[in-house]
Design goal:
- This protein has twelve helices and twelve strands.
- The longest helix is centred in the N-terminal third of the chain and has 21 residues.
- By secondary structure, the chain is of the alpha/beta class.
């Protein structure tokens, strides 16, 4: 088996799974309990929070645990909107955001907020000048993802940070789900970023856990109320085994960041160079200012899901761009926003690499691609 769908989810590190199992079996007290078992759980919870914060260059008081990226995005969009509604009801999100952000924005429109969608250029990068033109005196929130999940374009977060430097009343949220331990932290978690959302299973942690960075002093309305956990910002008993596993996985992934970038970029370059030799292949992802591990392409006249299943017959696993919306059978929203014709967009598939992949797998992928390409000759 060759797994090339790491942007959808990654295989948990054995060490992260071992941490999960050990905590679940040995430290099973509720962190909110007053007895020793609760105190033991609290110490581990605090240590996990501190480790994650230090890895990101932040403080422990700025990290809040969630169930993953979707909850984090929903919480920030809705929580900031209602917290700041008395100051304004205008929100800007980019036109290539994950559905967790876009659908939250659409929901907010139904609640009386105004939302503008910042356009992107033909390569999938947010147009900072156009974004600037959308900012109004009643703008309360700007949300732009760090790395696009469908084509891998790295968004100009530093440039947007500079744009918002003299606009302290505008909160800045970054969906960092696809960026954590994939590109340098300084490229997406600038000092101007007020909120950022993360998901553990994207960097070899377990599924069902994530966290949100909330800059010290920034206010947000809770999405969940109840027992007052997470400093009254996110009530519910903390998923301590998964949180500890997330801290372990993030540390290991951050330690491997340089190796990850170098190896995946090399593998991507080899695949890209080979695919460019085929006349009926469309390349949607570049190299400069793109994530090193994401490559999206299509074969003329061949729907993406057909190509996915063709590779699956050879036990090679890729995806039709976003895993969260692939079963809907719709063309990638990012490609449509880039101006790609819908008929061409439906051909898109995504290869997303990891440090666990190697050159022999790349060779096997390219050999298999050649076979499949010949098989689709009549369709093309």
């Amino acid at each position: 088996m060759i797994y090339l769908d790491n942007s959808a989810t990654t295989r948990p590190y054995p060490e992260a799974l071992a941490t999960y199992t050990e905590v679940a079996s040995k430290i099973w007290g509720n962190p909110s309990s007053l007895h020793n078992l609760g105190a033991q759980a609290t110490r581990l919870l605090d240590a996990s929070r501190k480790q994650i914060a230090e890895l990101l260059g932040k403080t422990a008081q700025e990290i809040f645990f969630t169930s993953g990226g979707t909850e984090g995005d929903n919480w920030v969009l809705k929580g900031v909107a209602f917290e700041k509604a008395r100051y304004g009801k205008h929100i800007i999100v980019s036109d290539i955001e994950h559905p967790a952000v876009k659908e939250s924005a659409v929901w907010l429109i139904q609640q009386g907020f105004e939302v503008d969608f910042a356009p992107v250029d033909a390569q999938g990068f947010v147009d900072v000048k156009r974004l600037e033109e959308l900012i109004r005196t009643d703008t309360i929130l700007v949300s732009v993802m760090a790395v696009n999940n469908e084509v891998g374009s790295i968004q100009p977060i530093p440039a947007i940070s500079d744009l918002l430097a003299d606009k302290p009343t505008v909160s800045f949220h970054v969906d960092a789900v696809q960026a954590a331990a994939k590109i340098p932290t300084v490229d997406y978690l600038t000092e101007r970023v007020d909120f950022a959302s993360f998901s553990g299973h994207k960097f070899h942690g377990v599924r069902g856990v994530g966290f949100v960075y909330i800059k010290s002093g920034k206010k947000i309305m809770p999405l969940l109320t109840g027992g007052g956990q997470e400093d009254n910002k996110r009530s519910t008993t903390e998923n301590l085994p998964a949180i500890a596993a997330t801290a372990k996985a993030l540390r290991m992934s951050m330690e491997n960041l340089d190796a990850f970038v170098a190896k995946t970029a090399q593998m991507k370059r080899i695949i890209l160079e080979e695919l460019r030799t085929y006349p009926d292949v469309t390349i949607f992802s570049g190299q400069e200012n793109f994530a090193p591990h994401v490559l999206t392409f299509g074969i003329k006249g061949v729907r993406g899901e057909v190509l996915v299943h063709a590779f699956e017959n050879y036990e090679i696993y890729i995806s039709t761009t976003s895993a969260c919306s692939s079963k809907a059978g719709k063309p990638a929203g990012t490609l449509i926003a880039m101006g790609v014709p819908p008929k061409v967009a439906t051909t898109a598939v995504r290869v997303s690499l990891d440090l666990e992949n190697d050159m022999s797998q790349v060779e096997q992928f390219l050999t298999t691609f050649k076979i499949i390409y010949q098989q689709t000759k009549k369709v093309r």
